[in-house]
Amino acid sequence: MNRLGQRIARLIEAQGPLSIAQFMTIALHDSHDGYYATHDPIGAKGDFITAPEISQMFGELLGLWCVQVWRDQGCPSPAHLVELGPGRGTLIADALRAARIDSEFLASVEVVLIDASAKLKDAQATKLKAFAEPPKIRWLEQFDESLADRPLFLLANEFFDAVPIRQFVKTERGWCERMVVIDDKGTLMFALSPTASVLDIPPECGKAEPGAVYEASPATEALVEQIAGSIASQGGAALIVDYGYGPDGGFDETLQAVSQHKFASILDDPGGADLSAHVDFGALARAAERTGAKAYRPAGQGEFLRNLGIVQRAEQLSRDSPEIATALNRLISPNEMGTLFKALAIVPKSAPKPAGF
Questions:
Q1: Rounded to an integer, what distance in angstroms lies between the CA atom of residue 211 and that of residue 208?
Q2: What does 193-258 look like in DSSP terms, one character per residue?
Q3: Among 68-72, 84-88, 120-124, 252-256, the least confident range
Q4: Per-residue CA distances from 33 to 2, 189, 272 (Å)
Q5: From 91, 155, 166, 321, which residue has the greatest number of CB atoms within 10 Å?
Q6: CB burial class (10 A; 0-12, 13-18, 19+) of residue 184?
Q7: Per residue in 143-181, pLDDT tens?
Q8: How far is CA 114 from the centre of its chain?
């Protein structure tokens, strides 16, 4: 067991079992040994590749999407342009480059990047040197109320899949939470809580059979409510792109660890592998609409990008870059990212239907 695993084992020994959400928080965000403190996770030398790293087309289209919804709402100024979990800064750099089509938009927004990783902040700063002025750019470690004073235009690509989840298993006793415990040798393992939890499971999920697993992310819902509440009151739009469930949700076990582009053990190497779970888009939509905002259905990433004109953009780029066809296929094919990955938009109820939906 590695150093962080030993520390987690001592914590369990002293304080008792950890929820999966608590374990994920430590494994991903511990300031010394956590995954994001010790890894540059993105790219061929990292653990996974995201859509912006596959092709510039992805970030360009999301940037143009922001310009369009900004125009749809009367070109408000000043406004915030926020990205949650901006990785190496590739998406926001491509988005800002495409947004040069409207200099008024760039002059109206302050760019705010939300990231707790010092390693990735350095990479983002390097990538964005060309965009120092305009627009204004600053960093925050988390989304907070300082962003709720003006219209908010927000992008979140593969961010919510890494927000900690809790897991519950249907047993004869009811829904028992899956916890992280230690065995008599001090090894981390999973176990079910002895008492059942009361869960408010949406009827869309259907009937749960014994052994069914229900995943919930209270932290995700709280953050989406905060974002949507700002949009409902101040205007703006949020675009969330990630892999996950459709609007009906369901019962499934999706927590996974990935290291060097391969699946890894969840408990064997805490901090050494990326941890993520599928996003429940139905829960995101319900959270947004509880605040008075309007959520537009999760569309498949392939459908969404086609509606924004990615095929036409690929035709333009392929004249100089033959590999664009391969990138296009990865982004929109049902056998690649086109169906599993989905897009959901949040706008004020009074706003027009956003592009792509």
A1: 8
A2: EEEEE-----GGG-PPPTT-EEEE-HHHHHHHHHHHHHHHHH-EEEEEEEEEE-TT-------EEE
A3: 120-124
A4: 10, 20, 8
A5: 91
A6: exposed
A7: 999 999 999 999 999 999 999 999 999 999 999 999 999
A8: 12
